[in-house]
Amino acid sequence: MTTGTKPLRADAARNRDRLLAAAEQVFAERGLDAPLEEIARRAGVSIGTLYNHFRTRDDLFDAIFPARMAVLDAAAAKAVADPDAWAGFAAFTETLFALHAEDRGLNDALAQRVPLSPGVVEACHRCFRHIEDLVARAKQSGQLRDDFEVADYAALIWAMSQIIRESAGVAPQAWRRSLAFFLDGLRSGAAHPLPVPALTAKQLAAIMAAPPD
């Protein structure tokens, strides 16, 4: 393994790999503002070793973010190839928010909840270019309401990211019900069965009583 043109020693390469694995876990669990000290602790190295490999938080996240975005790129390619434009649009949207639910760091990035590095910003822009294509296809097919715009999709991301954050600890699948409502509101025809039940009174009370992050 190399950094730039200089090969890493075997022990340094192992440390870097451990840091990347730990960063994936910690950012997914706690978001992009997670303490770097926690990443170093899980990797079993000092904070100094972390900074030797990654000078900034952005450098660390840039090293792990492309793999997550590659999943969205693949989902977008599959969606665009779907002969049913609405099915492709809906499938991509569900995949996007499933990744949000799995990875709080990705949630932070796509909802632009924290300042992002240029590399991550470009990856997010690429995601929105996929969304533009999917929205255009679904509108041209007559299945997506004509007044829905990509900016409306951005608002959907902001709303769903917050729903996912607020309910994850109590009802981690609750976002699917909200998304089903949103999607049904974007197309004509009969409503479809909802994938998960509504929050119970106990779950709702627990979410509302939780202190803010």
From TrEMBL:
Q: What is this protein called?
A: TetR/AcrR family transcriptional regulator
Source organism lineage? Bacteria, Bacillati, Actinomycetota, Actinomycetes, Micromonosporales
InterPro entries, per this entry?
A: Homeodomain-like_sf, HTH-type_TetR-like_transc_reg, HTH_TetR, Tet_transcr_reg_TetR-rel_C_sf, TetR_SbtR-like_C
Looking at the record, the residues that make up the HTH tetR-type domain are 13-72
Which positions make up the DNA-binding region?
Answer: 35-54
Q: Which UniProt keywords apply?
A: DNA-binding, Transcription, Transcription regulation
Pfam families for this protein: TetR_C_43, TetR_N
* SUPFAM superfamilies according to UniProt: Homeodomain-like, Tetracyclin repressor-like, C-terminal domain
